[in-house]
Design a protein that fits this description.
233 residues; mainly alpha; Heme Oxygenase, Chain A; 11 helices; 73% helix; globular; binds 5-(aminomethyl)-2-methylpyrimidin-4-amine; Haem_Oase-like_multi-hlx; Thiaminase-2/PQQC; EC 3.5.99.2
Length: 233
């Protein structure tokens, strides 16, 4: 991690609400705001994004993401922590979200067979594999938290009525609503529970992974926007 970042112990003295997850998020600017306000994400909320290349690449992201959820179940420090992760893995990712991918890719005429991964897809999969292989619960939760919290960030900006096309509407609904908010709250809560007690070197490792994941989220939307001709700032 670069020296320009304030350590959690120094940051918490002046922060109004000194949550560890908020230290991670605010130390990941400007990428964080660039992700949640990204033109491609905004185009999804308006029902205008060309989802073909984005979803084809994201189907490969979700494969590594599912494996990472499994690693989180395995590395969690208690039964009570394993349960919400296992539930989300089984009920949402392996069921609702998987069904969405199959229907959406079919409707868009995209072959479900894995296309060549874009560089950012490969980089994101490598980061998730790195976190998974570490079997380090806070590191794993950091990557999961970025993926879910940033998605809640852009999806919660969608205005009613949601787009008519199910490809956009259901993608927004998958990343918004009370259950998804509770899931993001759980992930943040795990970082807030465990982060403050970690040695400073471990806190910096968690932040390093959190920032890398946030940067990859930005690059992923840039990739999608480039493929669809959606202008990037
Ligand atoms: C790249 C990416 N980041 C996050 C998510 C939300 N699970 C996703 N589907 N794809």
């Amino acid at each position: 991690m670069s020296d320009d970042v304030t350590s959690f112990d120094r940051w918490r003295v002046t922060a109004g609400a000194p949550a560890f997850s908020e230290w991670l998020r605010s130390s990941s600017e400007p990428d964080w705001t660039d992700v949640v306000t990204h033109p491609f994400a905004a185009a999804i909320t308006r029902g205008e994004a060309d989802m073909r290349h984005y979803l084809a690449q994201d189907f490969q992201f979700v494969d590594a993401f599912t494996a990472l959820l499994g690693a989180a179940v395995a590395s969690a420090d208690s039964f009570e922590a394993r349960v919400p992760i296992g539930r989300f893995l089984g009920l949402t990712v392996a069921d609702t979200e998987r069904g969405y991918f199959h229907r959406a890719l079919a409707a868009l005429g995209v072959n479900i067979a894995a296309p060549t991964p874009e560089p950012v897809t490969a980089d994101f999969r490598a980061l998730m594999d790195e976190a998974r292989s570490s079997a380090d619960y806070p590191l794993i939760i950091a990557v999961l938290c970025v993926a879910e919290w940033t998605y809640l960030g852009w999806a919660s900006r969608a205005a009613d009525p949601l787009p008519e096309n199910f490809v956009h509407r259901e993608w927004i609904e998958l990343h918004e609503g009370p259950e998804f908010r509770a899931w993001v709250g759980f992930l943040r809560g795990e970082l807030d529970r465990l982060g403050p007690g970690l040695p400073e070197a471990e806190q910096r490792r968690v932040l390093d992974v959190f920032r890398r994941a946030t940067h990859l989220e930005r690059r992923f939307f840039d990739m999608a926007a480039g493929a669809s001709g959606q202008a990037c700032p």
